[in-house]
Amino acid sequence: MGLCASAPKSRTNPERNHFQNHQKPNLLGSNHHNPPSTHKPHKFSGENSPQSTTAGAAGGGGSGGATPPFSEFSFSELKTATNDFSKDLIVSESGEKAPNVVYKGRLKNRRWIAVKKFSKLAWPDAKQFVEEAMGVGKLRHKRLANLIGYCCEGEERLLVAEYMPNDTLAKHLFHWENQTIEWAMRIRVAQYISDALNYCSTEGRELYHDLNAYRILFDEEGDPRLSCFGLMRNSRDGKSYSTNLAYTPPEYLKHGRVTAESVVYSFGTVLLDLLSGKHIPPSHALDLIRGKNIILLMESHLEGNFSTDEATILVDLASKCLQYEPKDRPTIKDLVATLAPLQIKCDVPSYLMLGISKQEEAPLTPQRPLSPLGDACSRKDLTAIHGILLTTHYRDDEGTGTNELSFQEWTQQMRDMLEARKRGDQAFREKEFKAAIDFYSQSVALGKLGMHPDSLDMLNEAAELEEKQQKHDRRGS
Fold first, then answer.
1. Is 210 tagged catalytic?
2. Is the pLDDT of residue 55 over 60?
3. How many Å apart are CA 135 and CA 130, to the nearest integer?
4. Of the residues 303, 319, 354, which one is the last residue of a structural domain?
5. Secondary structure of residue 180 in the 3-state scheme
6. Catalytic residue among 88, 125, 167, 210
7. pTM of the model
8. What contacts 255, CB < 8 A, 6 or more positions away?
9. In the structure, what pLDDT confidence band is assigned to residue 445 with cuts at 50, 70 and 90?
10. How far, in Å, CA of 182 to CA of 351, rounded?
11. Domain limits for position 182
């Protein structure tokens, strides 16, 4: 056993959950302890989304780059992204009393997203919905499938989150096809989710609704993430747990309220899932634990491939989480402190332990036909770019005024500091073709820095400007 740094990041694909022995979870929850944000969210344009620089934002976005800032989407954008909310793109459905559906979608900037669409009457108060969404939208953590936006038009209520392409923990535990999850990965799942809950708690969002194996998703690299949807309720008055009462915290059955201790109880049920590979009622599991029948609790496929000492610690922790009295359960910080020292195989990527291929995004392609200059920029061929610019009488450093920068000098500054845009804007303001060169230059620099979605945006904008200039030149001749 030993403490180790976190493994590589990853994403998951929530799957359409028509599984036995567990009702599909309501993928949202809410919390009144955190006051709603007062900042105005970005009005989102799918074509040019800014990248988030929020501290701690280490998530992916389905098309590379950092997690984008929380934004307001239009209904038409999300309708387009989900192909008019196609049934073929449904990844999860849940709740007869508070029905909601989660769709897979793709924005114009090629970012994959998960879109949760509520029933018409779930949130009649638009202001309340927006305030709750904005509260969750402030969270940014690499262990969360982060909320990146919302839509509130007329009666429409939708949430937008990072998309996780590698299924749910439930799929990998209960419905695996090629291989079951190995022991070290199960410990990693438990630790990462405890880290996510601990972060949410420190940010004033300690209430998570109906935590279960369907709320834990795997990203591009196979790393487990906690769905942000469980941080919000399914409706203004909606239930916080599924109708399967066997897995519901006792105090919720009594009072109908979610507490921080309720979250710990639900975490205990997830530990049981990880230990047994089955979704078994806590009462039955506790009977086995009290009878010292720990081996009967463990998944048979793990036989000979797990540490008895580590399993004993996890069983003991699960037992404490499932105590009837909330005050007898450990805190979230206790969970983190117990699980962190158990981590093993720290240098092995999650996707290898899951037995899946690492998801690589297909190369980005521009949406407009490219000129020779655009093509050279898309290939980041600096020699070809410079040659084309020389033939179009682009001036070198010598003899230029103080407000113009050479292509080589400007792109080098882009690589170093990403501050050249304002200089380029000033230098090339007079002619649209030079503005196009400005954007092409940004595209090359951003591409070199690995910021591919932004690079594609610049390339498309440059192609559009160049096309306009060519049309103007043809009309003039």
1. yes
2. no
3. 9
4. 354
5. coil
6. 210
7. 0.66
8. none
9. low
10. 11
11. 42-354
